[in-house]
Amino acid sequence: MEDMNGYCPRCRTKLSFIMEISESNGVKTINYINRCPLCGYRYVINTVEIKRKGAVLRVHNIPRYTLGIRK
After folding, report:
1. Does a structural domain hold residue 34?
2. Do the domain assignments include residue 6?
3. What string of DSSP letters covers 22-68?
4. Were 46 and a residue from 19, 27, 29, 32 both cysteine, which residue would form a disulfide, CB within 3.0 to 4.6 Å?
5. Model pTM greater than 0.85?
6. Is residue 10 one of the residues assigned to a domain?
7. What confidence tens digit (pLDDT) does each residue in 11-25 have?
8. Distances from the Cα of 56 to the Cαs of 21, 44, 50, 52, in angstroms?
């Protein structure tokens, strides 16, 4: 992935940094995303999954370097 220095590769608008948190089947997922407010381009930087099993929390870090398009 080419480093765009904080700008969208599609429209050259400054990217916003956001976090999306979701929960499904007892697994909490946190996505760290660069997103273009103009065209909807998304770049997932990192994903963290948190699972609870009894008294134990398991944190799994998943580095991501994927491209995404707003649905």
Report:
1. yes
2. no
3. EEETTEEEEEEEEE-TTT--EEEEEEEEEEEETTEEEEEEEEEEEEE
4. 32
5. no
6. no
7. 999 999 999 999 998
8. 20, 27, 10, 6
CATH for 35: 2.20.25
The one-letter code for the residue type at 61 is: N
User: Exposed e or buried b for every residue in 25-41, given b needs 16+ CB within 10 A?
Assistant: eeeebebebbbbeeeeb
> Which pair of tokens denotes residue 50?
């948190």
DSSP for residue 17: E
Q: Which tokens go with 58?
A: 């398991």
Burial of 5 (0-12, 13-18, 19+ CB in 10 A): exposed
